[in-house]
Records
---
Amino acid sequence: GEDVEQSLFLSVREGDSSVINCTYTDSSSTYLYWYKQEPGAGLQLLTYIFSNMDMKQDQRLTVLLNKKDKHLSLRIADTQTGDSAIYFCAETFLLDTGRRALTFGSGTRLQVQP
Amino acid sequence: DTEVTQTPKHLVMGMTNKKSLKCEQHMGHRAMYWYKQKAKKPPELMFVYSYEKLSINESVPSRFSPECPNSSLLNLHLHALQPEDSALYLCASSQVSSGGGSPLHFGNGTRLTVT
């Protein structure tokens, strides 16, 4: 898969905003995704954005996409202790078979301090 | 709660054992996936089934054998595994084969330990 990069760790105080950043490489990606993984659990889809959009807002979540720089960010407003988890960005990439698969960034561990 | 159900949640097996992981979804999705996730790492794609046919095999060792009996079920048969195969095995499904606005929905995984 293509390289998707994220910073490894982010610590914020409860009530503050969190911004998790991601850079991707496949310019042909049509959709980009954010997943959340809590300890011992699978991946929960948070939101996704189509590549012709710059921004998408869904309640406390705001996704910003800079296609020119291949930069994706996830902003969580009013961060709560329940938001503590690992956040993965993911992009689709084209395989030799003509199918698309999903590749994940390294994940950002968000720690929310009470 | 996830709409993709995986069993068992935990599995401990010896290197000579044969076991199977199971995955079930009833969302009408026609693509199903197996991912492997090592500790502190992102998930890595193993297999993709599209319309019950194996579409992608990411050069996974033959000791892992997938099976898709119907559009709702996905199995992963395990035989002669190695300790380094210990990981969280995640099943996912989507409406079409990955991409195009059809996000993957994941189960909670099976945590496999090979002794």
---
Amino acid sequence: DAGVIQSPRHEVTEMGQEVTLRCKPISGHDYLFWYRQTMMRGLELLIYFNNNVPIDDSGMPEDRFSAKMPNASFSTLKIQPSEPRDSAVYFCASSRATGGSGNTIYFGEGSWLTVV
Amino acid sequence: AQTVTQSQPEMSVQEAETVTLSCTYDTSENNYYLFWYKQPPSRQMILVIRQEAYKQQNATENRFSVNFQKAAKSFSLKISDSQLGDTAMYFCAFMKHAGSQGNLIFGKGTKLSVKP
């Protein structure tokens, strides 16, 4: 099976520009997560969806961040406007709710964002 | 609130030898999951091994095994016959059994270097 697919892998953008990160979860997974990794804060959960519905967005840092999941196979994380402090690796991940490997979260390769 | 502590920021081991990475956690929950993830220089987060708290038997995956001590809230990872490809950051993570799908609480990580 294909894993979690993220794009772009790397992006360099100027402060103030809009950034859109994309994710395709593993087929059949009910949950989709967006995590952010920085040196200062480590890995932190931004938001997660269950069956395309946002369940917990308490980790989203501010209104400049938004996430959508229009269908079971696609999600976006948007930053508008971007700031240098948003520079980080953004991970998309997915999991099944039940079953032998339920609750195990599988990560994509990450999108490395640099805002200059 | 749950916390995960990895007390070894960096470790090194000679190729073919055995190394143990430490992890302790704090929780009042009785049922939960514990994970070890590996992050090589490529930055991808790769699941190494998973343990369910209600299972007394320690999980094993080929050269990787854990020592799960529930009463002590300890979850160490043992890597046998270390290989150069094991060089990576290793993250210990905790997740409650129910009601918090996706909210992995990560430790700060241990940087492991395998030397030839």
